[in-house]
Design brief:
heterodimer, A: 393 residues, alpha/beta, Rossmann fold, 2 domains, 6-stranded mixed β-sheet, 13 helices, B: 98 residues, alpha+beta, Alpha-Beta Plaits, two-stranded antiparallel sheet, two-stranded antiparallel ribbon, 2 helices, 5 strands, binds iron/sulfur cluster
């Protein structure tokens, strides 16, 4: 029997961590940390988990300690957000380069300046190229489910890469919603025992981690990372999702296709704003407009072929990004365009930047974009490719 | 060490065969000077052995007997640290003969 509770997104992921009971969690305990780790620390203080919690002096140190614990052979988890993830940046590459299956919750927040810690995706998009698997979550339920699956994906023998699980700061992280928790035994059975690959604590077999690798070999190590991301992760994500569906009844894929089958126009949008946008898609459908939505779940590796298949037959697509690459297009937009470009016939694609620094994404924003797509679908003409939504002039 | 293909690498850069730094002959780095042992000035304090970054001070039965030039990179740390006897160092850095 599932336990139905009303909790915040942060509490939901802390609960997943409690059920998984990692060996080590290293975290920086104050701002920009969320209450996620505080909740988990309470579990540790109350003896609900055996986890060794290391409180460090910065997020850079938090990831460093996670890397040390993971090389020692521990199952390691942590959480961060916004500027905290930015400060970890250097160490993110060390974690993935050393192929350590650390799981990290990222409660998406904006980056300064100006100082603002409300929701946007600048933090995780900044970590896009760091070699971590990225799962994105619309709500607390998905964040909880993705966290449990992330351990299986990261630790899979064909993968052995760190994974981060995103959910929107404040909108999901701090808001209370209904959630179904799985039974402890079910989660423990699902995630299983972790077997580290080359643990340093196996002192009968001494080894060295992190050697200097120069021009004659670095290229090959990077290719190995590319190869596992490019050819292995997608199948593992789908396999783990299929198993997860058996224990939870909840289905996950590489992305969610919402009313896309016969759609002519569609929105592509990550995380919580997809919830709002789906309602608007419904109202357009009621008016007879063939609208749909694609919500990416696995953003790294990006499932190009599958996205191309899902969107290729449409007339017009708007990709909504809650992060910008100043002087470029939004990060989701460039991926969707890369996916569609090889097709002989492809939809017109536009890019909207929305909701930076926690600005609300409202139904009328989605409405306006869908109306614009209707027009593009009719005329075949795109006037502006990239635009900010709801910006005051 | 031979360059390996990506599929021959361990998962992540980890050295699994312990002690393989023996394969790196740092003696080839020596260009200007090499340490020369003057036994008559040696008090067998073993400071040279302790300080040598490449374990290139040869010790037999607890006594310094000379240097392993396959690994000695000629840094001169041993000669710098050597207290010797009566103001006479037991290690001299002499010009490396080509
Ligand atoms: S010169 Fe340097 S490397 Fe050579 S024996 Fe002395 S300390 Fe060791
Ligand atoms: S440091 Fe000098 S005196 Fe001491 S053992 Fe070495 S050579 Fe002899």
């Amino acid at each position: 029997m599932a336990r139905v509770m009303a909790v915040t997104g942060n509490e939901a992921v802390a609960e997943a961590f409690r059920q998984i009971n990692p060996d080590v969690c290293a975290a920086y305990p104050i701002t920009p940390q969320t209450e996620l780790m505080q909740r988990f620390a309470a579990f540790a203080a109350n003896g609900k988990v055996d986890t060794e919690i290391i409180l460090v002096e910065s997020e850079h140190s938090a990831m460093s300690a996670c890397i040390g614990a993971a090389t020692a052979g521990g199952r390691v988890a942590t959480a961060t957000c916004g500027p905290g993830l930015a400060l970890m940046w250097e160490m993110l590459f060390v974690a993935s380069g050393m192929r350590l299956p650390i799981v990290m919750a990222v409660v998406n927040r904006s980056l300064s300046a100006p100082i603002n810690i409300h929701c946007d995706h600048a933090d995780a998009m900044g970590a896009r190229d760091s070699g971590w698997v990225q799962l994105w979550s619309e709500n607390a339920q998905e964040a909880y489910d993705n966290t449990i699956q992330a351990f299986r994906i990261a630790e899979h023998v064909d993968v052995r890469l760190p994974a981060l699980v995103c959910m929107d700061g404040f909108i999901i992280g701090h808001s209370i919603t209904r959630i179904e928790f799985l039974e402890d035994e079910l989660v423990k059975g699902f995630t299983g025992e972790y077997t580290p690959l080359n643990p340093l604590l196996d002192i009968d077999n001494p080894k060295s981690f992190g050697p200097l690798v120069l021009t004659d070999q670095y290229h090959e190590y990077k290719y190995a990372q590319h190869e596992v991301m490019w050819t292995k992760v997608r199948d593992v994500v789908l396999g783990v999702a299929a198993e997860f569906e058996k224990v939870s009844g909840r289905r996950y894929g590489l992305f969610e296709s919402y009313r896309l089958d016969d759609a002519e126009i569609a929105l592509v949008i990550l995380n919580s704003a997809a919830g709002t946008a789906k309602d608007v898609v419904d109202s357009f459908r009621e008016r007879g407009v063939k609208a749909g939505l694609l919500k990416p779940r696995l953003f790294r590796p990006f499932p190009y072929a599958e996205v191309a298949q899902a969107l290729g037959g449409l007339k017009a697509v708007a990709v909504l990004d809650r992060a910008d690459s100043f002087g470029g297009y939004g990060p989701v937009f460039t991926e969707v365009c890369s996916a569609l470009y090889p097709l002989a016939k492809r939809p017109a694609v536009i890019n909207k930047i929305y909701g930076l620094g926690g600005r609300d994404f409202l139904p009328q924003h989605a409405e306006r974009v869908l109306k614009e797509l209707e027009e593009i679908a009719q005329t075949g003409r795109v006037s502006v490719i990239k635009e900010y939504i709801g910006v005051r002039e | 060490m031979s360059a390996r293909g990506y599929s021959e690498l361990p998962v992540g850069p980890v050295i699994l065969d312990a002690g393989n730094s023996r394969l790196l002959k740092t003696g080839a780095w020596r260009t200007i000077n090499r340490p020369v042992f003057k036994e008559e000035n040696c008090s067998q304090c073993l400071l040279c052995w302790l300080f040598c970054p490449d374990m290139a001070v040869r010790v037999e039965d607890g006594k310094v007997v000379g240097f392993d030039y396959e690994y000695c990179k000629g840094c001169g740390v041993c000669a710098q640290e050597c207290p010797g006897k009566k103001g006479q160092k037991a290690i001299a850095m002499e010009e490396e003969k080509k």
